[in-house]
Each structure stands twice: as structure tokens, then as C-alpha cells.
UniProtKB/TrEMBL annotation:
Residues 1-97, 109-141, 291-313 are annotated as: Disordered. The keyword Zinc-finger applies. The lineage of its organism: Eukaryota, Fungi, Dikarya, Basidiomycota, Agaricomycotina. InterPro entries: Znf_C3HC4_RING-type, Znf_RING, Znf_RING/FYVE/PHD, Znf_RING_CS. Residues 196-248 form the RING-type domain. SMART domains: RING. SUPFAM superfamilies: RING/U-box. It comes from the Eukaryota. This is RING-type domain-containing protein. The keyword Transferase does not apply.
Length: 366
């Protein structure tokens, strides 16, 4: 605690000083000028608002003795207090400076620690970035290597694909050539051995005339039209001698009036020729379609191949020659079945009607 002591000497030289006295504050005493023997009255201690224990006379005497001191020692105490005040201020300032230096050092250490942490974080970040860049570089190199490998493999596959296409083209050309050769052979065989001498087309449902004397085969419709074209419209019988249209062999004349014997029917089915012709045309149906599609896709330009292709095209599925042959074959079988079933009992007038159904334009009449 600090005590304020007033200088007993009057005048403007009086000053107030703060004196530190062991944490207790001494009472302020005002002294008046007068004889040196005059004593000051004892100063009672201030009491707080709270109740305190009663003060004994001995304690009051001790307090009076403490307060009433000689004049000379009091002045010495004030001088001592006045001399120690600057020292205390200096000590406080030094203490403050020490504290400031300590705080500065703490701040410097804190800044250095943060700087070190920042440097460490920067180094770790830089190291991580370096590792990542190195990893990315390795991956890029690996991707380039894989890309080069894929490019080479693609080129190799392209070359192999081109080679396969060439081999496939050669194989297709060979198949087309073989198909054309087969088609030519089949067409040639049909033309040489199975051409009808009446319509000059491939025979449909072939039938033969009197095998004992002739044996030549013709289309069922063609031979019926030729045979019944010689019948007379008035009597329904044959007056002229019938000869084979191919070899001129004399044919037996049927009995005009029923009943007739079944073996006197002038037509006999050629089943062997029928089977061979049907198989050959069925083969042309598929082979011709494959040949025409392959030749069109490969762009055949040879004349022979083109002719064979056109010839086989009409015999493939849905071709004009194939459909026309099927119609002639169907109708010939139906007419021959009708004639064979009614030959023994058919009347001459019915024969004339049969000729009309066959659309024979040149029936003989008198």
C-alpha cells in the first residue's frame, strides 16, 4: 500500500511523496509550527462498520507510542522513502521490460514454430506433388506404350482382315465358278437329253408313246395335244395313221368306242426321266440363286459367266422358267391322271370335250 505524507515545512517547497511501507498505510499527520515540546494527540485507528472487539488501554497506549515519534526520525523516514521511490520505479520498469522481452521471445518462438510447421507442410506438399507428378508421368508412359501396342495390333488385324477378304473373295469366285460350271452342265444335260421335241423346252411330266414301237418321251400336255389334234370332230375317232412326231414310227390307233382295254392307252409315264428332271431343276433352284447373288456382289463381267448367270437366274426360286415348268408339270399330271382313269369308258364325245379343254386349235373336221 502507498501512504501520503505531508511535509511539515510550510511554503511552496512542500511536496507529497508516495512511500511504500511494507504493505501498511500509516495515518496522515498534520503538524503545526510551535514549540518542539508540544505533543500531538493520539490518533485512533479507524473502525469499520462491522463490530469489533473492545480495545484495551494497553493497546491504546501502544498505538499512541507508535504514532508519537520524534520529529527528527520522521524526517529520516521520509527521506528514506523518497530515496527508495525512484529505485522502485526503476525496478518496476525493469520488470516490465523483462516481461516484454519474455513476451517477445515467446512470440518469436511461436512465429518460428509456425514458420517451421509451414515449411514442413510445404515440403510434405511438395514431396506429395512430386510423387504424384512422377506417378502421372509413369502412367502416361504406360498409356503411350499400350497405345502403340494397340495401334500395331490394329494394323496387324487390318492386314489379316484384308488377307481374309482376299481369300474369301477367291473362295467365292471359286464357288461361283464351280456353280456356273455345275449350272452349265445341268442346263446342257437338260437341253441334250430332256428337251421336248414338240415345245423345245425342258420336259414337264414326261410320257412316252407306244414303247414297243417308239418309246420317245414328250411333255404330257404336248403329247396329248398332238395326239388328240388328229381326232375328227364329227365322229370322235382317228381316220389317219398316227406316226411318232420324232421318228415317224407308226402308232396303234385306239378303238373309238368303249369299252377299251387299259393297255391300249397310247401314253406311258417315263418315271426315270421324270425323277432325273425334277432333281436337276431342284438343284438349279438353289444353285442358280447362290450363283446370281455371288456374281452380282463380285461384279462379274465375263460374257460366259454373265450368260450362265442369266440362264440359271430364270431357274432359281421364283424364276420365270422354273415357275412356267412347274405349271406345265402340274397341269400335265392332272390331265394324264384324268385320261388314264377314264380311258376304258370314255365316249367319243367326251374325247372331243377333252380336246377342247386342252385348247387344241386344229381339230380335224369334214
Amino acid at each position: 500500500m502507498l501512504d501520503i505524507v505531508e511535509d511539515p515545512e510550510p511554503g511552496p517547497q512542500a511536496k507529497r511523496r508516495r512511500v511504500a511501507e511494507g504493505g501498511t498505510r500509516a495515518p496522515v499527520t498534520r503538524r503545526r509550527s510551535g514549540p518542539a515540546t508540544q505533543k500531538t494527540a493520539p490518533v485512533r485507528k479507524s473502525r469499520s462498520t462491522r463490530r469489533s472487539s473492545p480495545v484495551s488501554p494497553a493497546e491504546e497506549a501502544d498505538d499512541t507510542q507508535d504514532i508519537e515519534e520524534p520529529k527528527t526520525p520522521r524526517r529520516r523516514s521520509r527521506a528514506a522513502h523518497s530515496s527508495t521511490a525512484p529505485e522502485d520505479a526503476t525496478a518496476r520498469k525493469e520488470e516490465q521490460l523483462k516481461q516484454l522481452r519474455k513476451d517477445i521471445r515467446e512470440q518469436e518462438r511461436s512465429l518460428k514454430r509456425k514458420h517451421d510447421e509451414f515449411d514442413s507442410a510445404s515440403k510434405s506438399t511438395q514431396t506429395a506433388l512430386t510423387k504424384r507428378e512422377s506417378s502421372i508421368t509413369k502412367k502416361e508412359k504406360e498409356l503411350r506404350r499400350m497405345e502403340n501396342q494397340l495401334t500395331k495390333r490394329m494394323e496387324a488385324l487390318s492386314e489379316r482382315e484384308e488377307g481374309i477378304k482376299k481369300h474369301q473373295q477367291k473362295a467365292d469366285d471359286l464357288v461361283v465358278s464351280l456353280s456356273l460350271v455345275h449350272t452349265d452342265k445341268v442346263l446342257m444335260q437338260l437341253e441334250e437329253h430332256f428337251t421336248c421335241a414338240l415345245c423345245f423346252d425342258v420336259m414337264a411330266c414326261p410320257y412316252s408313246l407306244a414303247p414297243s414301237t417308239c418309246g420317245h418321251s414328250f411333255c404330257a400336255l404336248c403329247i396329248m395335244k398332238w395326239f388328240f389334234s388328229h381326232i375328227h370332230e364329227d365322229c370322235g375317232s382317228w381316220h389317219d395313221v398316227l406316226e411318232c412326231p420324232l421318228c415317224r414310227a407308226v402308232l396303234p390307233t385306239p378303238t373309238p368306242d368303249p369299252p377299251r382295254r387299259a393297255e391300249t392307252c397310247p401314253f406311258t409315264p417315263n418315271r426315270l426321266a421324270d425323277k432325273v428332271i425334277t432333281d436337276l431343276i431342284d438343284g438349279l433352284r438353289t444353285t442358280g440363286r447362290e450363283t446370281i447373288s455371288a456374281s452380282e456382289s463380285k461384279g462379274k463381267s465375263k460374257a460366259k459367266a454373265g450368260d450362265s448367270t442369266l440362264d440359271s437366274a430364270v431357274w432359281n426360286e421364283g424364276g420365270s422358267a422354273q415357275m412356267e415348268w412347274q405349271e406345265r408339270d402340274r397341269k400335265g399330271r392332272a390331265e394324264m391322271a384324268l385320261l388314264a382313269g377314264s380311258w376304258t369308258t370314255i365316249a367319243p364325245i367326251d374325247l372331243i370335250d377333252l380336246v377342247g379343254d386342252l385348247y387344241v386349235p386344229h381339230i380335224l373336221s369334214y
